[in-house]
Specification:
By secondary structure, this protein is of the alpha+beta class. It contains six helices and 18 strands.
């Protein structure tokens, strides 16, 4: 198993829910009052059978009109068309923007050759337009995608890939457990988005069920520590791929 963090950088987000690039070297956080600062890291995982993309970032482009996500995949030694599975933890914009790309004035799937795996209820909610966290135009553009696989609840998607309906960050959030031989990695999406949320136990206001999400983080951390799973942290600032240790009721995360 090979793991690649496809970092898309840092952003500030205020009540408008617009993601504005933030460079801590040149920008001042005080100039953006009331903002939440986040880091965005989709992941590419190569197994013996698949090239898997875990969430798709914001879908921003570089100066050549290319998706950063596509270029990062090329930098890892692959082509975007090589991706066989796109596994989505949930469909909030900062995780789903890269599902589509603008070409010739219209949005088209960014990974037309890949099977896209989403929770059915999350997909259906994304199309209602009831939340600004979901950009409905993305999902309208995906309706014609033949390789859209909607799953329900928890289960084994295929040998070596398990999905689990977690429902803490949003009602139909899911997490993934990937195993290839002796290699194992866990992708918690926004249920375990950064190492600091293991180290500091707290209820986050941005979670649908903050208390449940807090408990899930602890549960997943303990499993990762006891069973030696590698954790992929989508919103991590520094340690994006890490190993978790749990001793004396405290977590510690080290980079891999």
């Amino acid at each position: 198993m090979e793991i690649f963090a496809l970092g898309e950088g840092s952003y500030s987000v205020d009540v408008s829910k617009k993601f504005i690039p933030f460079d801590p070297q040149t920008d001042n956080a005080k100039d953006r009052p009331g903002s939440l600062f986040i880091h965005v890291n989709p992941f590419l995982v190569k197994t013996s059978t698949d090239l898997i993309l875990l969430d798709t970032g914001l879908g921003y482009k570089d100066t050549r009109d290319e998706l950063y996500l596509h270029q990062h995949i090329r930098n890892a030694g692959f082509e975007p068309d090589d991706v066989t599975l796109v596994l989505m933890s949930h469909l909030h914009y900062d995780h789903s923007g890269g599902l589509v790309v603008e070409r010739g004035g219209k949005l088209v799937p960014s990974f037309p050759n890949a099977i896209h795996v989403m929770q059915r209820n999350e997909w259906e909610f994304s199309l209602t337009g009831k939340s600004s966290s979901y950009h409905i135009e993305i999902f309208e553009a995906l309706k014609s995608l033949k390789k859209l696989d909607l799953v329900d609840g928890s289960g084994e998607y295929k040998p070596g890939i398990r999905y689990e309906l977690s429902g803490g960050h949003c009602p139909y959030h899911q997490v993934f457990w990937l195993q290839d031989g002796d290699d194992k990695c866990f992708f918690g999406g926004d249920e375990l988005p950064e190492p600091e949320q293991l180290i500091r136990k707290f209820i986050a206001k941005y979670d649908y069920d903050g208390r449940k999400a807090m408990q899930l983080r602890e549960d997943y951390g303990k499993i990762a520590a006891s069973e030696n799973w590698t954790c992929l942290f989508y919103h991590a600032k520094s340690i994006t791929v890490g190993k978790v240790a749990y001793t004396d009721d405290h977590f510690n995360v080290s980079a891999v």
